[in-house]
Amino acid sequence: MFQRLQLKNDNRIDWSIIFCVLMLALIGIGSIYVAASHDTGTVSVLKAVISQVIWYAIGAIAIIIIMQFDSEQLWKIAPYIYGIGLFLLFAVLFLYSRAYFQQTGAKSWFAFGPFTFQPSEVMKPAYILMEARIIAQHNSEYPHHTVREDWNLIGKMILWTLPIVVLLHLQNDFGTTIVFVAILGGLMIVSGITWKILGPGLAAFFGISATAITMVVSDGGRSILSSLGFQAYQFARIDSWLHPASDASNQGFQLWQSMKAVGSGGLTGTGFNVSHVYVPVRESDMIFSVMGENFGFIGGTLLILLYFLLIYNMIKVTFQTKNVFYAYISTGVIMMILFHVVENIGMSIDLIPMTGIPLPFISQGGSALIGNMIGIGLIMSMQYHNKSSMFSTTKNFS
Questions:
Q1: Cβ-contact 154, 188 below 8 angstroms
Q2: What is the pLDDT of residue 143?
Q3: Residues with Cβ < 8 Å from 300, sequence gap 6 or more?
């Protein structure tokens, strides 16, 4: 009887997702070991590895805890978690780490001795929960989509996003702002909003993006963007993206070295812990350069496929649960992880401008890892509390 009960409990856990996260964690530990071994900084290899392992352990505990919450409980706590996240984003404006501000120009980190924490990273899953609740509640109250009601829904979603965008702007954290906008865009697409709105909206988005790029490369356009709040370091990152070779000794040095490291890996790589190209602070934003150099094109491709396997398994769990509230949560988590992967790898090989976005489950850093682990916990809770009935009304969750 005990064995049958244990098997039943095991079936409630999606081991395919755990496998993907575990493999990414092992790759992350190995990559951080290589980066720390060849870094000229003061942090020891052992300290860097042990610190990351501790964060993985904390993240695993977070997954176990979050798995205990079913959809009704997540529904109820969403506003409170969102409120706590906003409070932390506001508090960090006054209690930010002065040392990190000098390094990055962003007021995004708390610092308590050697411990640092970036509240915007854990705000991401809190924001996803809140937006999922907003969409599910609206669609329950207005099951038949009309242009008027869809605009109403868009207004609600933007309203809950604006405080985060404003606070991140005050922190000078443009890269994280883009992540929230990407999550918002993904949720809008799956929310049921008519394409009579989404179509022109996407066209306007690409038009604005093209206009922004045109303005960035012209002196007059940069003057306008500066008056709108763009910082000098953001223009410098764009310049290093457009002309990495011409800026290889200044702002573009890190990017240029990352490209050299990835290119030197060739097809199969130089081998584990065999690095000939120095990449500054490669253990965080440029961690993909370690994979590219040590394991080449094949290793980088396998890593990307592992991410897609993780996303596929998350989508599969979403369809199995048949719960629309969970579906919106899942969409937000998938967009968060997918955007991080595309942005980080893209900027490491000069396809996308540098934004300081970490590679999920691999880059060194506890805040981002915990935020991603919380997202995995939300996905895991879907199968752990799988219900056959479909969520179609909000009164059961009020």
A1: yes
A2: 84
A3: 262, 265, 288, 291, 292, 345
